[in-house]
Write a structure and sequence with these properties.
Layout: H1 2-12, H2 14-27, H3 31-43, H4 55-72, H5 76-92, H6 100-126, H7 130-147, H8 154-177, H9 181-198, H10 207-231, H11 235-251, H12 261-282, H13 286-303, H14 308-335, H15 339-355, H16 362-399, H17 403-419, H18 428-436, H19 438-453, H20 459-475, H21 479-482, H22 488-495, H23 498-510, H24 514-526, H25 535-545, H26 552-560, H27 567-575
Helix pairs in contact: 1-2, 1-4, 2-5, 4-5, 4-6, 5-6, 6-7, 6-8, 8-9, 9-10, 10-11, 10-12, 11-12, 12-13, 12-14, 13-14, 14-15, 14-16, 15-16, 16-17, 17-18, 19-20, 23-24, 24-25, 25-27
Length: 576
């Protein structure tokens, strides 16, 4: 049957069996197909009847048994491959029971393999073949990283990794003796982490003492490097390593104390940067001087060299000419009309003066006040120029028919004046134009209001605003700017509503303006209003429109062209 075939194959081709199972899963990718496959295997498994383990349990057990055999022969890689095959069988078939033997073999194989690699690494190190030593250690570490999460409980982990950790610290100890301090600390870190994670206690090994030896070695190398670079007159490298060594000492204060050489090195470097800074200062090179003086100040603060007054005095001496340089640059920017840049420079000069306690120094205070006055004067001149230019732009916009743009330009100019009262800007041009164009601006605003009313308001409100607009137009001669404007009827025809047309008809009938009422009646017809809904209005218009006409037929025909929609109007006209 298929189950016996699987068992035979698993014995003969152990490393490949899992691949075969993977292929089966690919053939039956859907869950129901996989279940069908498992069902078929179970059906053909004759041992099921007698409660013998299932096919896949037997395959799992066979892998574990084979792994145990290879383990006894110390074939650790083959053992791990077989254990992984067993693990994957368990992954595909959830009913497989994992035996205690599985974990024991797995843990012992890991321990044996990692320890073997580390033994080779230690032997290679002892023979000074560091390249091979490192390679085998890295292989051991890789095996740990790949398997640490799969071991299980603490007892198995301890059983798996204890010898591995012992070899790590043995190798680390040799590296410490040979002054390979950084590599040794790396090994100690890994060993300590693995020990803590797996509750491993190492007899006769003191991590703290080993760390102290490693960190002290690195620290002394740094200090020796400082001395070397000082002897070579390379003060920049000396300073860099001095700061690095101090940071290193502070970050490992549990194991290190500051060496007495540090203070003497710091003093030597302080003297160098201080004297160089003063020399640059006396050579009238304040910017270069500050670079050296800042380094001297930094050394003074970190190592408490007690030169604070001396260094602060020198920095102030260097800062004063720099402040005046910045003020001069700002004045040039004022002259070049780059006021934003001038203000930024002024702020820099002020902040620098405040930072170094020089803001009340007479010459600096006067220079800053003078700069401030120049900036303000330049600002006011620019504002006056902008206002005058705005007047010209506004007139051009208005005469080009862009009336709203012209008004906006004038309003912005007025806002600019009001925002800068200290400038005392001449605003007569703006005021004059605002006065001259006020009727025009009012007309534009009210015309916009009228446009919003059309189709949305009572006709009487529309008519009132329209009359006001017409009066403004006539009284102020706005035709010069606006040309001919649309009459109310044309506006109503374009944007009015049927209810407004009804109101307009009634309004004009009441005013005895029957012809105008007729035109609005015609708008109702154009908008599809049924004639029967206009009978009352047609009677009134028909009576009034024909009242003074001698030839009513001819007059009426010119208006309605014998359209039956006006039947009631026609009857009312001819009746009277």
């Amino acid at each position: 049957g298929i189950s016996n075939d699987y068992i035979k194959l698993s014995k003969n081709y152990q490393p490949n069996t899992v691949s075969a199972f993977n292929e089966l899963v690919q053939i039956f990718p859907a869950e129901e197909d996989l279940n069908r496959m498992i069902g078929v295997a179970a059906f053909y498994d004759v041992f099921k009847i007698t409660n013998v383990p299932s096919t896949y349990q037997l395959i799992f057990n066979n892998f574990v048994s084979s792994a145990d055999s290879t383990l006894k022969r110390q074939e650790y890689l083959n053992t791990l491959n077989l254990i992984r095959n067993a693990s994957e069988i368990e992954t595909f078939f959830k009913n497989v029971e994992i035996s205690e033997k599985f974990y024991e073999v797995y843990a012992e194989a890991l321990n044996g393999l990692m320890s073997s690699f580390l033994k080779v690494s230690v032997m290679a190190y002892k023979s000074r073949n560091f390249k091979i030593a490192k390679r085998y250690y890295q292989q051991a570490q890789q095996i740990y990283d790949e398997n640490a999460d799969f071991i299980g409980d603490d007892f198995r982990a301890k059983h798996s990794f204890e010898e591995f950790v012992e070899k790590q610290v043995e190798l680390a100890g040799m590296m410490l003796d040979d002054n390979y301090f950084e590599d040794a600390i790396g090994l100690l870190d890994q060993a300590k982490t693995i020990s803590e994670e797996n509750d491993i206690e190492l007899d006769n090994f003191d991590f703290s003492a080993a760390y102290k030896k490693g960190y002290a070695g690195i620290y002394n190398i740094l200090l020796d490097s400082i001395d070397y670079y000082i002897q070579q007159q390379n003060k920049n490298n000396s300073l860099s390593i001095l700061l690095q060594s101090t940071e290193f000492e502070q970050s490992h204060s549990e194991y290190l104390k500051r060496d007495e050489r540090v203070f003497s090195y710091a003093t030597i470097l302080f003297d160098h940067y201080m004297n160089t800074g003063l020399a640059k200062l006396y050579s009238e090179k304040p910017e270069e001087a500050l670079k050296f003086l800042y380094e001297a100040r930094n050394l003074n603060e970190i190592f408490q060299l007690d030169h604070t007054k001396e260094i602060d005095s020198a920095i102030r001496q260097a800062i004063v000419p720099l402040i005046f340089q910045i003020i001069n640059k700002a004045e040039f920017e004022v002259w070049a009309k780059r006021l934003d840049e001038a203000k930024i420079l002024k702020e820099q000069a002020e902040n620098m003066a405040i930072k170094y306690g020089l803001i009340e120094q007479e010459d600096i205070r006067k220079a800053l006040l003078n700069l401030d006055e120049k900036i303000n004067n330049r600002v006011c001149i620019d504002i006056q120029y902008k206002v005058n230019n705005a007047c010209k732009i506004s007139v051009n916009r208005i005469h080009a028919g862009k009336i709203e743009e012209g008004e906006i330009v004038l309003k912005k100019a007025d806002d600019l004046i009001n925002a800068n009262p200290e400038c005392n800007v001449n605003k007569s041009g703006v005021d004059s134009l605002m006065h001259v164009y006020q009727p025009l601006f009012k007309y534009i605003a009210e015309a916009d209001s009228l446009d919003k009313l059309l189709g949305n308001a009572a006709f009487t409100d529309i008519k009132k605003l329209s009359d006001e607009l017409q009066a403004n137009y006539n009284e102020n001669g706005l035709n010069e700017y606006l040309g001919k404007i649309s009459n109310l009827f044309d506006l109503m025809k374009e944007k009015g509503s049927v209810p407004e047309y009804y109101e307009a008809i009634q309004y004009h009938i009441n005013q005895d303006e029957f012809l105008t009422a007729f035109y609005y009646l015609d708008l109702l017809k154009m908008n599809g209003v049924a004639a029967k809904n206009t009978k009352l209005y047609q009677k009134g218009i028909g009576y009034g429109i024909c009242r003074d006409q001698e030839d009513k037929y001819s007059y009426l025909n010119e208006l309605i062209h014998n359209d039956s929609w006006y039947k009631v109007l026609k009857a009312s006209c001819l009746k009277n």
